[in-house]
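Look over this record as teaching material.
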Amino acid sequence: MAKDHGKQIKDDAQYEALRKKGMSKEKSARIANSPDASKKGGEATDLDSRTKSDLLAEAKKIGIAGRHSMKKDELIKAIRNH
């Protein structure tokens, strides 16, 4: 059974699994707290096939600063490295 991390972590089991994989506390918490996190697995489209407006929306959702001045390839890189 997963340890209870309090109200700040919505999915304790997912948080612990991500931490065991070596992700930071911040990134693990962000993923474990994202809505529909468990439903997204394997359903994401390839970033290269998305439009710039789709990439801007994704960048906004994850909080990438300066996204509007980025080119499409810069947006893809920023999303992958976030």
